[in-house]
């Protein structure tokens, strides 16, 4: 969650002001309202989610995370049904990729339906690793 907050913070502090400088004055006034900024940011997130393309193969964001030792341990801790669902999505995506096809639009993973199923397990693994490192320093 920390890196996610850092990305949102970077987006809010760096990217958004750059976009606002390029807008006409009338639009700048409208985008400074907190609700408008939230809607703009939400719209940008949806656009970026769809632009990444993994959703067109039926994948979720957590299916695309690079598998380092922490992620491998988190995957090992996943309940069997979540692990099987993940493997099905990955195999289907590989098959579609080999055929150079995408799913029908009604089967794409939607931003609103995205579930970060691996995140709680990954946070737990990272916290445990940091605790072990802290203990080994002593």
Explain what the structure shows.
The protein has 138 residues and is an all-alpha fold. 68% of the residues lie in helices and 0% in strands. It has six helices and no strands. It is globular, with a radius of gyration of 19 Å.
Give a topology summary.
Layout: H1 2-22, H2 25-31, H3 34-52, H4 69-77, H5 80-98, H6 119-137
Helix pairs in contact: 4-6
Task: Work out the helicity level.
Answer: 55-70%
State the distance separating the first and last CA atoms. 27 Å
| Count of individual beta strands | 0
Secondary-structure-derived class: mainly alpha
Q: Which whole number gives the mean pLDDT?
A: 83
Features:
138 residues; globular; mainly alpha
How would you concisely characterize the structure shown here?
The protein has 138 residues and is mainly alpha-helical. Helix 4 packs across helix 6.
């Amino acid at each position: 969650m920390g890196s996610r907050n850092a990305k949102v913070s970077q987006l809010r502090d760096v990217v958004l002001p750059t976009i606002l400088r390029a807008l006409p004055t009338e639009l700048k006034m409208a985008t400074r309202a907190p609700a408008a900024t939230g809607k703009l940011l939400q719209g940008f997130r949806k656009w970026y989610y769809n632009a990444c393309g993994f959703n067109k193969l039926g994948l979720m964001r957590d299916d695309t995370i690079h598998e380092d030792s922490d992620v491998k341990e988190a995957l090992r801790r996943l309940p069997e049904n979540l692990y099987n669902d993940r493997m099905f999505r990955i195999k289907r995506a590989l098959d579609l990729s080999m055929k150079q096809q995408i799913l029908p639009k009604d089967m794409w993973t939607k931003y609103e339906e995205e579930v970060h199923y691996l995140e709680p397990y990954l946070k737990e693994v990272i916290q445990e690793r940091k605790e072990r490192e802290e203990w080994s320093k002593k």
